[in-house]
Design goal:
Number of helices: 7
CATH architecture: 4-Layer Sandwich
Structural class: alpha+beta
Largest sheet: 6 strands, mixed
CATH topology: CNF1/YfiH-like putative cysteine hydrolases
Number of domains: 1
Strand content: 15-25%
CATH class: Alpha Beta
């Protein structure tokens, strides 16, 4: 049902989980632990799934908080719960409030969980390329520092993400990255299709994290596209011609 990162598991007041698609109440293409309130799944099933996730994290169902994600570098500070209808539009959160779980939804994009266990500050970011490119990771770290975190004590873990063998992109995509920094060529590998390439999103995210000078950054090594049994994947759903897709939830909380 969930994956825990060794880099975060040793901290006594920090609870976290990278939930898989297993162990839920949804059916069909959403089977079974779909946490996406923006999906077309049965809302009652999604609510049950999210309640199970909240219980695993030791928070109340209304304490599992996710955003209206817009593929941006926007980050907010979280101090109190909100309703599903009033989700803030942003892609990252930071908090020092116990009893709230910061949750990001993903289905190929990179879910990144952050913690400075010494300061009691946590963060969570939805980092697809559209968010990572303009700086959502750096913005999350900066917001954590505003709440009292120390950069060199922050641990960041990238959860299940589309892997480099599955993420084929076109020439405009490659050009955008190379125009920003010619060194970004190291994140691309040749494709058999003319003018196309495979993009290593996990390596790009880790490089951005490592460049910030935080204490530790790692990827769990799980590819959403290639592991149908454990993970939802937007790109896989498109290739299969499915009408919608489930969302994975990755979340982190501070206990009371």
């Amino acid at each position: 049902m969930l994956i825990e990162a060794p880099a975060l598991s040793s901290f006594p007041r920090i609870r976290h989980a990278f939930f898989t698609r297993e162990g839920g109440a949804s059916a069909g293409i959403y089977a079974s632990l779909n946490g996406g309130v923006g999906s077309k799944d049965d809302p009652a099933a999604v609510a049950e799934n999210r309640a199970r996730m909240a219980a695993e994290l030791g928070v109340s169902p209304d304490g599992l908080l996710s955003l209206y994600q817009i593929h941006s570098p926007e980050v907010i500070t979280v101090e109190a719960p909100w309703t599903a209808e009033n989700r803030p539009k942003a892609d990252a959160m930071a908090s020092r409030t116990p009893g709230l779980a910061l949750a990001v939804a993903s289905a190929d994009c990179g879910p990144v969980l952050f913690a400075d266990p010494h300061a009691g500050v946590i963060g969570a970011a939805h980092a697809g390329w559209k968010g990572a490119f303009p700086g959502v990771l750096e913005a999350t770290i900066a917001r954590m520092e505003e709440l009292g975190a120390t950069r060199t004590q922050i641990v960041a873990v990238l959860g299940p993400t589309i892997g480099p063998e599955a993420y084929e992109v076109g020439p405009e995509f490659v050009a955008r990255f190379l125009d920003q920094d010619a060194g970004h060529r190291r994140f691309f590998a040749a494709s058999e299709r003319p003018d196309h390439a495979f993009f290593d999103l996990p390596a790009y995210i880790l490089a951005r994290l490592e460049a910030t000078g935080i204490g530790e950054a790692e990827w769990l090594g799980c590819c959403t596209y290639s592991d149908d049994g454990r993970f939802f994947s937007y790109r896989r759903s498109v290739h299969r011609g499915e009408p919608d897709y489930g969302r994975l939830i990755s979340a982190i909380a501070i206990t009371h």
